[in-house]
Protein backbone atom coordinates (compact mmCIF):
# COMPACT_ATOMS: atom_id res chain seq x y z
CA UNK A 1 0.00 0.00 0.00
CA UNK A 2 1.50 3.38 -1.01
CA UNK A 3 1.70 6.36 1.33
CA UNK A 4 -1.39 8.17 -0.02
CA UNK A 5 -3.60 5.09 0.24
CA UNK A 6 -2.28 4.35 3.71
CA UNK A 7 -2.96 7.91 4.88
CA UNK A 8 -6.52 7.78 3.47
CA UNK A 9 -7.21 4.44 5.17
CA UNK A 10 -5.78 5.63 8.48
CA UNK A 11 -7.81 8.85 8.33
CA UNK A 12 -11.06 7.03 7.56
CA UNK A 13 -10.59 4.47 10.34
CA UNK A 14 -9.60 7.19 12.79
CA UNK A 15 -12.72 9.19 11.97
CA UNK A 16 -14.88 6.06 12.26
CA UNK A 17 -13.34 5.36 15.65
CA UNK A 18 -14.09 8.88 16.88
CA UNK A 19 -17.70 8.69 15.68
CA UNK A 20 -18.34 5.32 17.37
CA UNK A 21 -16.56 6.37 20.57
CA UNK A 22 -18.60 9.59 20.62
CA UNK A 23 -21.86 7.66 20.33
CA UNK A 24 -20.87 5.21 23.06
CA UNK A 25 -19.75 8.01 25.38
CA UNK A 26 -23.05 9.78 24.71
CA UNK A 27 -24.87 6.66 25.90
CA UNK A 28 -22.53 6.19 28.89
CA UNK A 29 -23.13 9.75 30.05
CA UNK A 30 -26.86 9.31 29.48
CA UNK A 31 -26.83 6.22 31.71
CA UNK A 32 -24.98 8.09 34.46
CA UNK A 33 -27.37 11.04 34.25
CA UNK A 34 -30.52 8.93 34.30
CA UNK A 35 -29.41 6.59 37.09
CA UNK A 36 -27.16 8.75 39.28
CA UNK A 37 -27.79 12.40 38.35
CA UNK A 38 -25.67 15.29 37.09
CA UNK A 39 -24.08 15.92 40.52
CA UNK A 40 -22.50 12.45 40.57
CA UNK A 41 -21.21 13.05 37.05
CA UNK A 42 -19.67 16.30 38.25
CA UNK A 43 -18.08 14.54 41.23
CA UNK A 44 -16.47 11.91 39.02
CA UNK A 45 -15.33 14.63 36.62
CA UNK A 46 -13.59 16.68 39.33
CA UNK A 47 -11.83 13.70 40.95
CA UNK A 48 -10.66 12.44 37.55
CA UNK A 49 -9.42 15.91 36.62
CA UNK A 50 -7.42 16.27 39.84
CA UNK A 51 -5.77 12.86 39.51
CA UNK A 52 -5.00 13.45 35.83
CA UNK A 53 -2.28 15.81 37.07
CA UNK A 54 -0.21 12.66 37.50
CA UNK A 55 0.25 12.79 33.72
CA UNK A 56 3.65 14.24 34.52
CA UNK A 57 4.67 10.61 35.14
CA UNK A 58 4.43 9.95 31.42
CA UNK A 59 7.69 11.88 31.03
CA UNK A 60 6.45 12.96 27.60
CA UNK A 61 7.42 9.55 26.22
CA UNK A 62 4.19 8.74 24.35
CA UNK A 63 4.81 11.64 21.99
CA UNK A 64 8.45 10.61 21.58
CA UNK A 65 7.43 7.05 20.72
CA UNK A 66 5.46 8.19 17.64
CA UNK A 67 8.38 10.13 16.23
CA UNK A 68 11.19 7.68 16.98
CA UNK A 69 9.35 4.50 16.03
CA UNK A 70 8.39 6.10 12.71
CA UNK A 71 11.92 7.40 12.09
CA UNK A 72 13.54 4.03 12.88
CA UNK A 73 11.13 2.10 10.68
CA UNK A 74 11.90 4.52 7.83
CA UNK A 75 15.55 3.47 8.24
CA UNK A 76 14.52 -0.19 8.55
CA UNK A 77 15.67 -0.39 12.18
CA UNK A 78 12.87 -2.57 13.49
CA UNK A 79 14.74 -3.84 16.57
CA UNK A 80 15.54 -0.31 17.63
CA UNK A 81 11.86 0.62 17.27
CA UNK A 82 10.90 -2.32 19.50
CA UNK A 83 13.46 -1.25 22.07
CA UNK A 84 11.96 2.24 22.13
CA UNK A 85 8.43 0.94 22.78
CA UNK A 86 9.43 -1.37 25.64
CA UNK A 87 11.72 1.18 27.27
CA UNK A 88 9.04 3.84 27.11
CA UNK A 89 6.43 1.45 28.57
CA UNK A 90 8.45 0.55 31.67
CA UNK A 91 9.62 4.12 32.18
CA UNK A 92 6.03 5.39 32.07
CA UNK A 93 4.71 2.61 34.33
CA UNK A 94 7.35 3.08 37.03
CA UNK A 95 7.34 6.89 36.96
CA UNK A 96 3.53 7.16 37.08
CA UNK A 97 3.25 4.64 39.93
CA UNK A 98 5.88 6.45 41.98
CA UNK A 99 4.29 9.83 41.32
CA UNK A 100 0.80 8.69 42.33
CA UNK A 101 2.21 7.47 45.65
CA UNK A 102 4.20 10.66 46.26
CA UNK A 103 1.41 13.11 45.44
CA UNK A 104 -1.35 11.21 47.27
CA UNK A 105 -1.48 13.78 50.15
CA UNK A 106 -1.66 16.57 47.58
CA UNK A 107 -4.55 14.83 45.79
CA UNK A 108 -6.49 14.75 49.06
CA UNK A 109 -5.80 18.43 49.65
CA UNK A 110 -6.88 19.47 46.12
CA UNK A 111 -10.11 17.48 46.38
CA UNK A 112 -10.91 18.95 49.79
CA UNK A 113 -10.26 22.39 48.31
CA UNK A 114 -12.47 22.01 45.24
CA UNK A 115 -15.30 19.64 46.26
CA UNK A 116 -18.24 20.79 48.46
CA UNK A 117 -17.90 19.62 52.07
CA UNK A 118 -20.92 17.32 51.83
CA UNK A 119 -19.26 15.35 49.00
CA UNK A 120 -15.66 15.15 50.30
CA UNK A 121 -15.92 11.69 51.91
CA UNK A 122 -17.39 10.20 48.75
CA UNK A 123 -14.80 11.94 46.56
CA UNK A 124 -11.88 10.67 48.67
CA UNK A 125 -13.21 7.10 48.42
CA UNK A 126 -12.91 7.34 44.60
CA UNK A 127 -9.18 8.18 44.61
CA UNK A 128 -7.84 4.55 44.58
CA UNK A 129 -10.19 3.58 41.74
CA UNK A 130 -9.45 6.61 39.56
CA UNK A 131 -5.70 6.31 40.27
CA UNK A 132 -5.70 2.67 39.13
CA UNK A 133 -7.52 3.57 35.94
CA UNK A 134 -5.15 6.41 35.24
CA UNK A 135 -2.08 4.21 35.76
CA UNK A 136 -3.32 1.54 33.34
CA UNK A 137 -4.55 3.94 30.64
CA UNK A 138 -1.29 5.94 30.82
CA UNK A 139 0.79 2.79 30.35
CA UNK A 140 -1.38 1.57 27.48
CA UNK A 141 -0.89 4.89 25.67
CA UNK A 142 2.72 3.88 24.94
CA UNK A 143 1.64 0.82 22.93
CA UNK A 144 -1.06 2.78 21.11
CA UNK A 145 1.47 5.51 20.27
CA UNK A 146 3.73 2.76 18.96
CA UNK A 147 0.96 1.74 16.55
CA UNK A 148 0.74 5.38 15.43
CA UNK A 149 4.47 5.36 14.75
CA UNK A 150 4.03 2.19 12.68
CA UNK A 151 1.38 3.98 10.58
CA UNK A 152 -1.23 1.57 11.94
CA UNK A 153 -3.89 4.06 12.93
CA UNK A 154 -6.35 1.52 11.53
CA UNK A 155 -5.40 -1.08 14.15
CA UNK A 156 -5.45 1.54 16.87
CA UNK A 157 -8.89 2.58 15.68
CA UNK A 158 -10.27 -0.96 15.87
CA UNK A 159 -8.81 -1.37 19.36
CA UNK A 160 -10.34 1.89 20.56
CA UNK A 161 -13.74 0.97 19.09
CA UNK A 162 -13.69 -2.37 20.93
CA UNK A 163 -12.67 -0.59 24.14
CA UNK A 164 -15.51 1.93 23.99
CA UNK A 165 -18.14 -0.69 23.23
CA UNK A 166 -16.85 -2.71 26.19
CA UNK A 167 -17.08 0.39 28.40
CA UNK A 168 -20.73 0.89 27.41
CA UNK A 169 -21.69 -2.71 28.20
CA UNK A 170 -19.85 -2.77 31.53
CA UNK A 171 -21.31 0.58 32.60
CA UNK A 172 -24.82 -0.66 31.84
CA UNK A 173 -24.40 -3.65 34.16
CA UNK A 174 -22.27 -2.12 36.94
CA UNK A 175 -23.84 1.29 37.44
CA UNK A 176 -26.95 0.27 39.39
CA UNK A 177 -25.15 -1.94 41.90
CA UNK A 178 -21.93 0.05 42.39
CA UNK A 179 -22.94 3.61 41.60
CA UNK A 180 -20.25 5.94 40.24
CA UNK A 181 -17.61 3.35 41.26
CA UNK A 182 -19.17 1.06 38.66
CA UNK A 183 -18.26 3.55 35.93
CA UNK A 184 -14.65 3.75 37.13
CA UNK A 185 -14.32 -0.05 37.42
CA UNK A 186 -15.65 -0.30 33.85
CA UNK A 187 -12.96 2.19 32.82
CA UNK A 188 -10.25 0.13 34.53
CA UNK A 189 -11.31 -3.02 32.66
CA UNK A 190 -11.50 -1.05 29.40
CA UNK A 191 -7.98 0.37 29.91
CA UNK A 192 -6.62 -3.12 30.69
CA UNK A 193 -8.05 -4.48 27.44
CA UNK A 194 -6.56 -1.56 25.49
CA UNK A 195 -3.17 -2.24 27.07
CA UNK A 196 -3.29 -5.96 26.25
CA UNK A 197 -4.42 -5.47 22.65
CA UNK A 198 -1.94 -2.63 22.09
CA UNK A 199 0.97 -4.83 23.20
CA UNK A 200 -0.36 -7.84 21.25
CA UNK A 201 -0.39 -5.97 17.93
CA UNK A 202 2.78 -3.91 18.41
CA UNK A 203 4.57 -7.17 19.29
CA UNK A 204 3.49 -8.75 16.01
CA UNK A 205 4.31 -5.72 13.87
CA UNK A 206 7.81 -5.27 15.32
CA UNK A 207 8.51 -9.04 15.51
CA UNK A 208 9.01 -9.05 19.27
CA UNK A 209 9.26 -12.67 20.44
CA UNK A 210 8.74 -12.03 24.16
CA UNK A 211 5.30 -12.74 25.61
CA UNK A 212 5.49 -9.67 27.87
CA UNK A 213 7.66 -6.54 27.52
CA UNK A 214 10.94 -7.13 29.36
CA UNK A 215 13.47 -4.77 27.77
CA UNK A 216 14.64 -1.48 29.25
CA UNK A 217 17.67 0.28 27.81
CA UNK A 218 19.32 3.27 29.46
CA UNK A 219 20.78 4.67 26.22
CA UNK A 220 17.41 4.38 24.48
CA UNK A 221 15.67 6.01 27.43
CA UNK A 222 18.05 8.99 27.41
CA UNK A 223 17.61 9.53 23.66
CA UNK A 224 13.79 9.55 23.76
CA UNK A 225 13.66 11.39 27.07
CA UNK A 226 15.54 14.35 25.59
CA UNK A 227 12.80 14.71 23.00
CA UNK A 228 10.12 13.84 25.53
CA UNK A 229 11.36 16.55 27.90
CA UNK A 230 9.66 19.13 25.70
CA UNK A 231 6.46 17.10 25.92
CA UNK A 232 6.96 17.05 29.68
CA UNK A 233 6.75 20.83 29.75
CA UNK A 234 3.55 20.52 27.72
CA UNK A 235 2.22 17.92 30.18
CA UNK A 236 2.95 20.17 33.15
CA UNK A 237 1.20 23.04 31.36
CA UNK A 238 -1.83 20.83 30.71
CA UNK A 239 -2.17 20.38 34.46
CA UNK A 240 -3.57 23.92 34.36
CA UNK A 241 -6.02 23.08 31.56
CA UNK A 242 -9.04 20.86 32.23
CA UNK A 243 -8.29 20.16 35.93
CA UNK A 244 -8.00 23.87 36.72
CA UNK A 245 -11.17 24.75 34.82
CA UNK A 246 -13.23 22.07 36.56
CA UNK A 247 -11.86 22.88 40.01
CA UNK A 248 -12.70 26.58 39.49
CA UNK A 249 -16.15 25.75 38.14
CA UNK A 250 -16.85 23.58 41.20
CA UNK A 251 -15.47 26.26 43.53
CA UNK A 252 -17.55 29.07 42.03
CA UNK A 253 -20.66 27.17 40.92
CA UNK A 254 -20.85 23.69 42.48
CA UNK A 255 -20.83 20.12 41.22
CA UNK A 256 -23.99 20.45 39.12
CA UNK A 257 -22.50 23.20 36.96
CA UNK A 258 -19.32 21.14 36.64
CA UNK A 259 -21.39 18.16 35.52
CA UNK A 260 -23.13 20.19 32.81
CA UNK A 261 -19.77 21.62 31.71
CA UNK A 262 -18.31 18.09 31.59
CA UNK A 263 -21.03 17.04 29.15
CA UNK A 264 -20.61 20.09 26.92
CA UNK A 265 -16.84 19.75 27.04
CA UNK A 266 -16.97 16.03 26.23
CA UNK A 267 -19.27 16.72 23.27
CA UNK A 268 -17.02 19.42 21.80
CA UNK A 269 -13.84 17.45 22.54
CA UNK A 270 -15.16 14.39 20.71
CA UNK A 271 -16.35 16.57 17.83
CA UNK A 272 -12.96 18.29 17.62
CA UNK A 273 -11.23 14.92 17.57
CA UNK A 274 -12.67 14.09 14.12
CA UNK A 275 -10.88 16.81 12.07
CA UNK A 276 -7.77 16.86 14.28
CA UNK A 277 -7.36 13.07 14.24
CA UNK A 278 -7.74 13.02 10.46
CA UNK A 279 -4.93 15.58 10.37
CA UNK A 280 -2.87 13.74 12.99
CA UNK A 281 -2.43 10.68 10.76
CA UNK A 282 0.02 12.80 8.74
CA UNK A 283 2.38 13.02 11.74
CA UNK A 284 4.35 9.80 11.10
CA UNK A 285 4.39 10.63 7.38
CA UNK A 286 5.86 14.10 8.07
CA UNK A 287 8.44 12.58 10.43
CA UNK A 288 9.34 9.87 7.92
CA UNK A 289 9.77 12.29 5.02
CA UNK A 290 11.79 14.70 7.14
CA UNK A 291 14.07 11.83 8.17
CA UNK A 292 14.63 10.71 4.59
CA UNK A 293 15.17 13.98 2.75
CA UNK A 294 15.04 16.83 5.31
CA UNK A 295 12.63 18.78 3.10
CA UNK A 296 10.01 21.17 4.44
CA UNK A 297 6.41 20.11 4.00
CA UNK A 298 5.18 23.59 3.14
CA UNK A 299 2.96 22.61 0.23
CA UNK A 300 1.41 19.82 2.29
CA UNK A 301 0.73 22.33 5.05
CA UNK A 302 -0.93 24.85 2.71
CA UNK A 303 -3.20 22.21 1.16
CA UNK A 304 -4.13 20.77 4.53
CA UNK A 305 -4.83 24.18 6.06
CA UNK A 306 -7.05 25.33 3.17
CA UNK A 307 -9.06 22.13 3.12
CA UNK A 308 -9.36 21.99 6.90
CA UNK A 309 -10.66 25.56 7.06
CA UNK A 310 -13.51 24.97 4.62
CA UNK A 311 -14.41 21.71 6.36
CA UNK A 312 -14.11 22.77 9.99
CA UNK A 313 -15.94 26.11 9.71
CA UNK A 314 -19.32 24.68 8.56
CA UNK A 315 -18.66 21.56 10.65
CA UNK A 316 -18.56 23.50 13.92
CA UNK A 317 -21.47 25.66 12.76
CA UNK A 318 -23.53 22.49 12.33
CA UNK A 319 -22.53 21.37 15.81
CA UNK A 320 -23.78 24.72 17.16
CA UNK A 321 -27.07 24.24 15.29
CA UNK A 322 -27.45 20.75 16.76
CA UNK A 323 -26.80 21.89 20.36
CA UNK A 324 -30.48 22.46 21.29
CA UNK A 325 -31.43 19.00 19.97
CA UNK A 326 -28.51 17.37 21.81
CA UNK A 327 -29.57 19.12 25.02
CA UNK A 328 -33.06 17.64 24.74
CA UNK A 329 -31.76 14.15 23.97
CA UNK A 330 -29.06 14.16 26.63
CA UNK A 331 -30.60 16.16 29.46
CA UNK A 332 -34.31 15.62 28.69
CA UNK A 333 -34.74 19.37 28.88
CA UNK A 334 -33.91 22.65 27.18
CA UNK A 335 -30.77 23.46 29.18
CA UNK A 336 -29.61 27.05 28.61
CA UNK A 337 -26.37 26.56 30.56
CA UNK A 338 -25.47 23.58 28.37
CA UNK A 339 -25.97 25.74 25.26
CA UNK A 340 -23.82 28.54 26.69
CA UNK A 341 -20.98 26.17 27.60
CA UNK A 342 -21.29 24.48 24.21
CA UNK A 343 -21.04 27.73 22.21
CA UNK A 344 -18.09 28.99 24.28
CA UNK A 345 -16.21 25.71 23.77
CA UNK A 346 -17.11 25.38 20.08
CA UNK A 347 -15.54 28.74 19.24
CA UNK A 348 -12.30 27.79 20.98
CA UNK A 349 -12.30 24.34 19.36
CA UNK A 350 -12.72 25.88 15.89
CA UNK A 351 -9.65 28.12 16.24
CA UNK A 352 -7.69 25.25 17.78
CA UNK A 353 -8.58 22.96 14.87
CA UNK A 354 -7.32 25.53 12.36
CA UNK A 355 -3.96 25.51 14.13
CA UNK A 356 -3.65 21.70 14.06
CA UNK A 357 -1.75 21.53 10.70
CA UNK A 358 0.87 23.87 12.17
CA UNK A 359 0.91 21.95 15.46
CA UNK A 360 1.41 18.53 13.86
CA UNK A 361 3.94 19.93 11.41
CA UNK A 362 6.08 21.12 14.33
CA UNK A 363 5.73 17.73 16.03
CA UNK A 364 6.55 15.84 12.84
CA UNK A 365 9.89 17.58 12.31
CA UNK A 366 10.70 17.61 16.03
CA UNK A 367 10.74 21.42 16.35
CA UNK A 368 8.83 21.95 19.60
CA UNK A 369 9.83 25.46 20.64
CA UNK A 370 6.58 27.16 19.67
CA UNK A 371 4.45 24.20 20.69
CA UNK A 372 5.87 24.38 24.21
CA UNK A 373 5.54 28.18 24.40
CA UNK A 374 1.90 28.07 23.29
CA UNK A 375 1.03 25.41 25.87
CA UNK A 376 2.65 27.37 28.70
CA UNK A 377 0.81 30.55 27.67
CA UNK A 378 -2.52 28.69 27.48
CA UNK A 379 -1.98 27.34 30.99
CA UNK A 380 -1.17 30.76 32.48
CA UNK A 381 -4.05 32.57 30.76
CA UNK A 382 -6.50 29.80 31.68
CA UNK A 383 -5.61 29.99 35.37
CA UNK A 384 -5.64 33.78 35.58
CA UNK A 385 -8.73 34.47 33.48
CA UNK A 386 -10.61 31.52 34.97
CA UNK A 387 -10.17 32.90 38.47
CA UNK A 388 -10.72 36.56 37.55
CA UNK A 389 -13.88 36.01 35.47
CA UNK A 390 -15.04 33.29 37.87
CA UNK A 391 -15.38 35.97 40.57
CA UNK A 392 -17.81 37.78 38.27
CA UNK A 393 -19.76 34.82 36.86
CA UNK A 394 -19.82 31.10 37.64
CA UNK A 395 -19.28 30.35 33.93
CA UNK A 396 -16.11 32.46 34.01
CA UNK A 397 -13.67 29.51 34.12
CA UNK A 398 -15.17 28.17 30.86
CA UNK A 399 -14.73 31.56 29.20
CA UNK A 400 -11.17 31.76 30.50
CA UNK A 401 -10.36 28.33 29.06
CA UNK A 402 -11.75 29.18 25.61
CA UNK A 403 -9.92 32.52 25.43
CA UNK A 404 -6.66 30.85 26.51
CA UNK A 405 -7.05 28.08 23.91
CA UNK A 406 -7.74 30.62 21.15
CA UNK A 407 -4.71 32.74 22.05
CA UNK A 408 -2.34 29.76 22.22
CA UNK A 409 -3.67 28.27 18.98
CA UNK A 410 -3.23 31.56 17.10
CA UNK A 411 0.32 31.82 18.44
CA UNK A 412 1.15 28.35 17.03
CA UNK A 413 -0.43 29.27 13.70
CA UNK A 414 1.43 32.56 13.35
CA UNK A 415 4.71 30.96 14.45
CA UNK A 416 4.37 28.23 11.82
CA UNK A 417 3.86 30.77 9.07
CA UNK A 418 6.83 32.77 10.30
CA UNK A 419 9.17 29.76 10.58
CA UNK A 420 8.20 28.48 7.12
CA UNK A 421 8.10 31.96 5.55
CA UNK A 422 4.46 31.55 4.54
CA UNK A 423 2.67 34.83 3.84
CA UNK A 424 -0.94 35.07 4.96
CA UNK A 425 -1.92 36.15 1.47
CA UNK A 426 -0.78 32.69 0.33
CA UNK A 427 -3.70 31.13 2.20
CA UNK A 428 -6.23 33.72 0.94
CA UNK A 429 -7.35 35.32 4.24
CA UNK A 430 -9.94 37.64 2.59
CA UNK A 431 -11.93 34.73 1.18
CA UNK A 432 -11.77 32.92 4.48
CA UNK A 433 -12.88 36.00 6.39
CA UNK A 434 -15.92 36.50 4.15
CA UNK A 435 -16.86 32.83 4.41
CA UNK A 436 -16.50 32.93 8.21
CA UNK A 437 -18.64 36.06 8.54
CA UNK A 438 -21.39 34.41 6.47
CA UNK A 439 -21.42 31.38 8.76
CA UNK A 440 -21.33 33.45 11.97
CA UNK A 441 -24.15 35.68 10.72
CA UNK A 442 -26.32 32.62 10.13
CA UNK A 443 -25.62 31.30 13.65
CA UNK A 444 -26.38 34.72 15.11
CA UNK A 445 -29.80 34.76 13.42
CA UNK A 446 -30.49 31.19 14.56
CA UNK A 447 -29.84 31.83 18.25
CA UNK A 448 -31.53 35.24 18.19
CA UNK A 449 -34.75 33.66 16.87
CA UNK A 450 -34.41 30.74 19.31
CA UNK A 451 -33.95 32.92 22.40
CA UNK A 452 -36.08 35.97 21.49
CA UNK A 453 -39.16 33.96 20.54
CA UNK A 454 -38.94 31.35 23.33
CA UNK A 455 -39.67 28.39 21.03
CA UNK A 456 -38.33 25.74 23.38
CA UNK A 457 -41.17 23.32 22.69
CA UNK A 458 -40.54 23.53 18.93
CA UNK A 459 -36.77 23.34 19.15
CA UNK A 460 -36.60 20.02 17.24
CA UNK A 461 -38.51 21.37 14.25
CA UNK A 462 -36.80 24.76 14.29
CA UNK A 463 -33.30 23.25 14.49
CA UNK A 464 -34.09 20.71 11.77
CA UNK A 465 -35.26 23.32 9.27
CA UNK A 466 -32.38 25.62 10.20
CA UNK A 467 -29.92 22.82 9.43
CA UNK A 468 -31.63 22.09 6.08
CA UNK A 469 -31.47 25.77 5.09
CA UNK A 470 -27.83 25.91 6.21
CA UNK A 471 -26.95 23.06 3.83
CA UNK A 472 -28.85 24.73 1.00
CA UNK A 473 -26.76 27.87 1.47
CA UNK A 474 -23.51 26.02 2.17
CA UNK A 475 -23.16 24.11 -1.11
CA UNK A 476 -23.23 27.16 -3.43
CA UNK A 477 -21.00 29.05 -0.98
CA UNK A 478 -18.36 26.30 -1.07
CA UNK A 479 -18.55 26.20 -4.85
CA UNK A 480 -18.13 29.97 -5.02
CA UNK A 481 -15.03 29.86 -2.83
CA UNK A 482 -13.67 26.95 -4.93
CA UNK A 483 -13.16 24.64 -1.97
CA UNK A 484 -13.22 21.62 -4.27
CA UNK A 485 -10.05 22.85 -5.91
CA UNK A 486 -8.36 22.59 -2.53
CA UNK A 487 -9.77 19.13 -1.88
CA UNK A 488 -8.26 17.84 -5.13
CA UNK A 489 -4.89 19.35 -4.17
**Coarse shape:** globular
Radius of gyration: 22 Å
Sheet having the most strands: none
The strand count comes to 0
Report the helical percentage: over 70%
Question: How many distinct folded domains?
Answer: 2
Mean model confidence by pLDDT = 82
Head-to-tail CA distance between termini: 20 Å
Q: Which parts are unreliable, with pLDDT below 50 for 5 consecutive residues or more? A: 484-489
Give a verbal description of the structure:
Helix content is 84%, strand content 0%. By secondary structure, the protein is mainly alpha-helical. The chain has two domains: 1-239, no CATH class; 240-489, no CATH class. It starts with a helix and ends with a helix.
Architecture blueprint of SSEs:
Layout: H1 3-35, H2 38-51, H3 61-74, H4 78-102, H5 104-114, H6 120-149, H7 153-178, H8 180-205, H9 218-238, H10 242-253, H11 255-280, H12 282-293, H13 298-331, H14 336-354, H15 356-365, H16 369-390, H17 396-419, H18 429-452, H19 459-480, H20 483-488
Helix pairs in contact: 1-7, 1-11, 2-5, 2-6, 2-10, 2-11, 3-4, 3-6, 3-9, 3-12, 4-6, 4-9, 5-6, 6-8, 7-8, 9-16, 10-11, 10-16, 10-17, 11-13, 11-14, 12-15, 13-14, 13-18, 13-19, 14-17, 15-17, 16-17, 18-19
Quick tags:
489 residues; mainly alpha; 84% helix; globular
Summarize the structure.
84% of the residues lie in helices and 0% in strands.
Amino acid sequence: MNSKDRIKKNALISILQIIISSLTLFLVYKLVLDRLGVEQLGLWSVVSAVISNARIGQLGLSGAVVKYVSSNLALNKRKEAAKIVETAFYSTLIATTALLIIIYPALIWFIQLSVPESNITEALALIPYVSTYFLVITSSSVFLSGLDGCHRYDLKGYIMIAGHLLLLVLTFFLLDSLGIRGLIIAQIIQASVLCFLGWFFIKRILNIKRVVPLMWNKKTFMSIWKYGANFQVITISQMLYDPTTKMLLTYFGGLEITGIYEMANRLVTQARAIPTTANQVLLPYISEQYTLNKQNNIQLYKSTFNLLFYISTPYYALLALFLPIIAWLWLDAYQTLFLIFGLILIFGAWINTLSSPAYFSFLGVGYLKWVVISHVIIAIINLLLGYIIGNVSNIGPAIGWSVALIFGSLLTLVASHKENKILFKDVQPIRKMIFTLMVFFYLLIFYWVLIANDIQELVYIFSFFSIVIFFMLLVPALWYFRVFVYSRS
